[in-house]
Records
---
Amino acid sequence: MKIIIVGCGKVGSKIAEMLSRENEHDITVIDLRSQVVSDVANKLDIMGLTGSGANLENLIEAGVEDADILIAVTGSDELNLLTCLMAKKAGNCQTIARVRKPEYSKSIGLLKDDLGLAMIINPEFAAANEMARALRFPSAIHIDTFAKGRVEILKFRITENSVMDNLKVCDISTKLKSDILVCGVEREDEAFIPDGNFVMKAGDMISIITSTTGAGQFFQTIGVKTNRVRDCMIAGGGDTAYYLAYVLLKSGIKVKIVEKDEKRCEELCQLLPKADIIHGDATDNQLLSEEGLEQAESFVSLTNLDEENVLLSLYAKSKKVGKIVTKINRIAYDKVIGEMDLGTIIYPKNITAEYIVRFVRAKNNSIGSNIETIHLILDGKAEAIEFVIKANTDVVGKPLSSINIKENTLIACIHRNGKVIIPRGHDTMETGDTVIVVTSNTGYEDINDILA
Amino acid sequence: MNYRIIRYTLGCTLYIEAFCFLIPLLCAVFNSEFQYIPHILFSIALCVLCGFLLAFKKPADKTMYAKEGFISVAMSWIIISIFGAIPFMTTGFIPNFFDALFETVSGFTTTGASILTDVEALPKCLLLWRSFSHWIGGMGVLVFLVAILPLSGGDNMHLIKAESPGPAVSKLVPKVRSTAKILYLIYIGITVTQIILLKLGGLDWFESLALSFGTAGTGGFGTRNSGIAEYSPYVQNIITIFMILFGIDFSFYYLILMRKLKSALKMEEVRGYLLIILTAIVVIMINCYGMYSNIWDNLRYTAFQVGSIITTTGYSTVDFNLWPELSKTIILILMFIGACAGSTGGGIKVSRIMIFLKGIFKEIKLAIHPRRTVKVTMNGRMIEHETVRGVNVYMAAYIVIFFVALLIISIDNFDFTTNFSAVAATLNNIGPGLNLVGPVSNFSCYSDLSTFVLTVAMLIGRLEIFPILILFSRHTWRK
């Protein structure tokens, strides 16, 4: 597909990076800053163009006339909308705009229809939603959903003394009587797609696939607290904090926001009458103790400084706060940060990029392959792909134990008429099912590709 | 530094060279030159063996930064030149290693300078190999590699940047690989057209191929001792037109293929290039008035020579040594200007000269109005300061290298015009110079040392100085 990305900041370059990895798109990026453009064009297999995206000449030079998708992710909402409008007029492409101002986001539906946008993304809102999901399911570090929300892949760490420590994967269903499947294990730097004989150890990050209801039962069996948190302390009162508080309050979770700017506190107070807005510096640990950090069930660090967020989360961890969520905006040391065990880490730019990339893939799939969704799991080392089973495939009706599957590939879940089946050897795939395949190989486009 | 990716790239380049040797092999089979087949097969075997040793293990880490790109390109060119010289040496036609290396480097760098006194003594297969080395060297071996081999993604741009001529190399389409493919398809397309037109002009297949390869790469190796002089006016005119066509930036053709004729015609560099050619032809025609029997002969000879020198091809139909001084000086200046960036031609490049001149005008304006804001533009777009700086540094490095080479070869004690034009002809990848190295002579008079210095000058000229300098900088290799 031909894709034009206008704006090459954090999000724009991340999207370009993720899409260019798929190797089937022709990508052109446009940005005003020539240095940024040439850096990205040198690093990735894409074309760069210096100039404004709202300039029709530039858009035409970038090939808007026969482009399939235009993604406007500059820092300015107005420019993004204008670019999309212009692209829609000049060519016939799907347009995606990033719109982040809360005052615009309220009338988002109206804008979308009138401007002919295919998608509007608000990074802060998306990040807040992701955080809210993590707080509702505190034991998991990361959650991906499939089959329209009926299937989840949850990632969590095996603690010392857990029943999972030193357990063979094939013993899970007999010993724990849980209907789950371990579809990935990360140990130190390595990622595995485990077979039945794999032994899990304390400290491993494991990803399990299960139905949304199955997850709760499983966590109960292994003795991990699963109840959603009842209160939440948020450090920093920016837009993300506002959205998060809004979502949490709606589902009945108590919210306390610590913000150092007095004016902003007043604003938040007006916007979120049910929340406790504390005026003070979140880095003041005496203040945090006074406001009951030790008793809080969850803590979210959302200040503008990544370093501050990391330190705040470390402090909260030392105070044995149950669930910790850390926002990292800018710094790119994923691995180092991952090792610090800061609970759920949210990278807003990655979330935005992932949302958009998912949209592009869905668009692409409607043209060619049978892929419904793709999620990168195990730190990007593996993919979870959702396929639709069509009538003319070789796998239909055969028990799984008789199908010869490629190495490092796992049929993780079958979803049939709203029912979620965690497959065992005797299960079959039927026409019309959606099947989730987990693999560390790349380039699968059809369910037949998994056959050895 | 990622040594593994460099090793792997070198191995793949040797595979390509082995593949290229199939052309002279087929030629030997068709022309019943069976005694040379073992020599070519030996070269192929050696390329495949060494290529296998180098490229056998695929590197796990495929990242290639600018540094690796430069070094891969410089080393690839040195290696293909050494391997390409093998058949000349084993067959005994050019027994001296330095001479054989000079001949092959002259081929790959599309220079066309020769140390052979009797070209016609060479078998057809070796003549075709010389000409084909022009063709593959014209667009670039690594561009070809990128087009056919799925290496890693965007990193390949560094290879193309290091190999393609011009102050700012850019892509035609978002993907590097597609860009390389498009370039080669255009290249093949125009070459095939020329082959057919020459065949229609009454040449046999061998000469049509050899001359077309020589023209396409803007090389200049011919098949006869007399150069192009013996061919019919039709053949000479065809070669003139195609030389000038191959000296145009290939993105011009891409724009035309994309039906963007307007933006194609707006390309400042192409306009400048054609304007220079036209002016030079007119001035030389007036200057040479009366030397030829009629005005059409005058036009034909002048146009051929101007096209041949500005595109740095180096074919000749007349001995321009006999021309008046003004015409000779114009020819010498054209040698330095060279063709367009992004073409197969050599020289300093029209766009560099234009940016350089615009920079001078800018400084003059600034001297008069110090607070005035002036920006150098090209094709209506502002030129990055980096590019302007790159051009200035290039010119400085060019002059230094020119004089160092000139100093070393003057040890041989030939006259100044000979030495000066010899360096100009090799550093700009043209071929013939003036006086002793003029169009009807050759480079065999120089000593081994000078031959080697001129060989290096050709490589430096083709790769536009910096890859070779980076290869020999000790900062590159320091851990």
---
Amino acid sequence: MLSQYIISQVVNGLCQGFIYALIALGFAVIVGIVGLATFTHGEIIMIGAYASYYIFLACGHNLILGLLASFSASWIVGIIIYKLCYERFLEAPEHISLICTIGFSMLLKNLAQIVFGAEKKPMLNVIENQIYKFGPVEISKVQFVIMGTVIVLSTTMMIIFNKTKWGIALRSVSQNREAAALVGINVKQTSMIGNCIGCAMAGVAGMLIGIYYQSISPTMGATLSMKAFSAATLGGLTSVPLSSLGGVVLGLIENLGISISTASFRDVFSFGFLIIMLIFKPTGFVKRKGARP
Amino acid sequence: MMDKLKGFYVKNKIPVWVVLMVLLVTMPLYVSAGNMRIVCRIMLYIILAGGLNVISGYCGQLCFGIAGFYCVGSYVQAILMKTYNVSYWLALLPSGIVAALIGAVVALPALRMKGIFLGMITIGFSELMRLIALNWTPVTGGAMGFKGIMAPTFFGIKMGGASKYYYIFLFVVIAYMFCTNRVIKSRVGRAWMSIREDELAARSLGVDAKKYKILNFMYGSFWAGIAGAIFVAYSTYVDSTYFTLDEGFNVLGMLIIGGQGTLVGPIVGSFVAQVLTESLRFINVWRYVVYAALIILMMWVRPQGLIGASGSILAGSKAGKKKTKKAEKIVKSEGKEA
């Protein structure tokens, strides 16, 4: 019976970890690859969740449509963030754009409370409740869909960043802006699209979280962005695959942690993980010269 | 305009101070009780934003977790007063000191980090403090918090209510201003500012960056702890909902609007923010949107705040680009005059 409980906690942790991995991937793209500092990540998760919610309301239970809606909504917000918080301050000290994103996150959160209503909303039941059994392991259909979506999206991102010409251009921008501009890369446009991709990943993750927890609220993003950061520290904020791994590890730590204590300590475990990581290994496990401090 | 005001102040230093002090001390006589509550809130946020100003304004260390120190200070005060029956006045200093010690602990990992890393670790710390306050029920009272914390008596006068408690706020604000003014003008303050402008250069000139950063965090969090301690007896109850991340961002917003790296900055910031949110009550929830938009606008127009340290790194002059432009302008205008 106990082993059954542990196995189900591991499955839950994996599923949650996959969502965290998607958020952390977006975060690592924005902070590590494009080289911008952001505090709006949590609010973009919320925007993505609400976009898919309203599409589900309007167009019925179509998962693909919801995914597209959250993707495009958070993409648009990404453009706004770039224009408002980054474009002017590319040459300025980092803290200015950082404070700008804090202001924007406050703006989005309060605006969402006015537009969508401050109370929690129940997410529509998009995927019917069905449980598959593999020996002792039980996985629900929701968890299957979530894991599948995350795996497909993250492999696509990996291919884009490592194999395509555009991905290489993006990484060159993060390494040296001026040199990238000298070889004919449109620096501003490239970093804007990079920022938008990171935001879009967060938006899709928001939809998945809404489906998984069955409820969405304007303040849902605050702790999630923190968890994305905790996960991304495993890769020193620069490595995309390690950040995703960090997300999975974080999900497992949380769910195994609350199985030995109570559920109210969930966030304590993730923050503890973050602080231990930052104290002992602030550069993460990447072996690259010039990783961020 | 600013220069004229400054000139006037320099010429009539003593009369200006006397008039100001008389106005401040007699404030409960000519301000209604309802407005005194706003004044008290302004005072509270002056101390909080002032503590943050020491950390992120003078030393340039991004700290978003001021609510964590605030939380520590108020809980220490509440626990000392309710559980151990310590008198209000005796509990004030320990709450500040405990907050300062925790500030030193936070500063240890912060020594190696900058920018978003430091911001995130302070946010994590702030949330951790709130979660501990929420979940450590035997000590902190859990979700119920502490109720019925009595206002202190001062020579037989009970200091309850906004118009009387105002004097405690006033005293602490003046103490903060006096101490910080002295510290900033000392070797310590100069070391902090040199770390803010260029840490590498400061270290090569013999500034012990580690020591001064820890000292900086301790000093800033001390005042945040004191603010928490006096807030507890003012509101008479405390629970963990006061110390959310939004509270920390709120204080940061005030500091940014007012101006980082100056003594007057937090005063102006907290005054503007409170008056704005009070006078915009008629648009209800939209005032928070206005407030957030103001922060972004401030970064676009005047990154150093209304009364900020211009010409420093806070004003965005990293590569000295703005300076050279200004210098060019001056040269041109001088040429025209000639």
